[in-house]
Structures are given as C-alpha cells and as structure tokens.
Amino acid sequence: MNYKEMLEKAKRSLPEKTEKQDRFEVPEPMVDYQGKQVIIKNFSEIARILRRDPKHISKFLFKELAVPGSQTNQGLLISGKVDKVIISKKINDYVRVYVRCDKCGKPDTNLEKKDRMFVLKCESCGAKKII
Q: Which of 2, 10, 100, 112 falls between 20 and 30 A from 27, CA-CA?
C-alpha cells in the first residue's frame, strides 16, 4: 500500500464531521403576556444557568428595558409591553458583558463585587476585567 492509499483509508475511517455545539446555551425566555405586564416564567432557570444572582440580572434588564418590575414566585414580572425578541436580546447582552470572558470567550467566570465595582474573573484563563 502506498502513502495515498493509506491516507484515503485513514480518511474513510474517521467519523463524520458533526456540527460543533457550544456547551453553554442560554435558554430562550418563556414569556407570558398578561395585559400590560410580561412574566418571564423561566427566569430562575436562566439565572441558574448563567450562575449569576437573579437580582443582578433583573436590575440589568429593568435598566436596559427602561421599565419597572419585580421578582415573583411565577418569575420575573416586567411592567410594560416588551417583545420577547427584545427581552432575549437584552439577556444575550447581559451574557456578553457579565458572563463571557473577553479573552477566551468561555462562560466559566465569577462576578465579584469589590468596593463599588464588579470584577469578572475567568476560571479558565485567569483573566480579570473590571466592569
């Protein structure tokens, strides 16, 4: 067997390429519209997956959406008509700023409050970022 034949045989024995999936996926918000209010039913699950304090996430969302709201047993209550697409975009903005590492892009980070600032520390690469 020559080199080309061995190479072809090796290529055939390799598994087919599969689509790369990120191990970190933010769930889509399950939104329920009740009059002029919106409830994100799976808010606690989103906070658990992001490994962040629900109060911090809700404060960010209320500020970014420019609406008042509160946390309830049912989920996050937003006072105002806000589209699901906009809520999802704002959650992804939160992930970009407060969850993913700027250096390596991994979500393995801790958010610590020091004095009046937040410090995002990556567990994977050790990078630190003041927010």
A: 112
